[in-house]
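Q: What does the assembled structure look like for these inputs?
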Amino acid sequence: MSDSTSSRLRVVQGDITKLAATAIVNAANSSLLGGGGVDGAIHRAGGPAILDECRQIRARQGGCKTGEAVITTGGRLPAQYVIHTVGPVWNGGSKGEPELLAACYRNSLALALERRLESVAFSSISTGVYGYPKADAAAIAVREVRQWLATHEWPQEVVFVVFDEENNRLYEQALAG
Ligand code: AR6
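A:
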């Protein structure tokens, strides 16, 4: 990794709803109608404007498929936008989970490029209720974001927001490797 790429990438431990990034990335589900985990926290903190826009997207394109991403307002969040991506449910690893998880990162970054978003903060997609093994998920997240930053100017900065100590350690390891 070049120095210019590593300086555009960091790990922060805490609540993603408090982060003043240009966009934060939500671990949503295909309905786009909200749920528990980070999704629930984002809708609670951001208020009803986010769900309103999710409903409009649903009406237009029928939700969001696994591996894809859509963008809405951040409502009352410090972040301007929320990118909603739908991670794969872990099902043993031979059902295309790694490719789908990688697609979540790439498709979210593609939205950031399209809109020239300065900074994007990712939650650890699929590593909660969806049960993706955390070390493997961290390795995929770091690999995809590094590859993207090495070849694209936007977003200018990416933050991995980890909630728990275990993920913090795993991301630090993945970034050091
Ligand atoms: N800030 C940052 N990270 C968080 C926060 C927070 N406030 N809260 C939880 N995490 P999950 P998934 C971490 O379960 O596995 C929802 O119901 C958490 O520790 O939120 O992709 C959706 O509607 C974990 O590492 O998402 C879907 O139905 C990570 O966020 C389903 O869950 C992701 O955990 C998606 O499951």
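The first strand starts at residue 9 and ends at 13.
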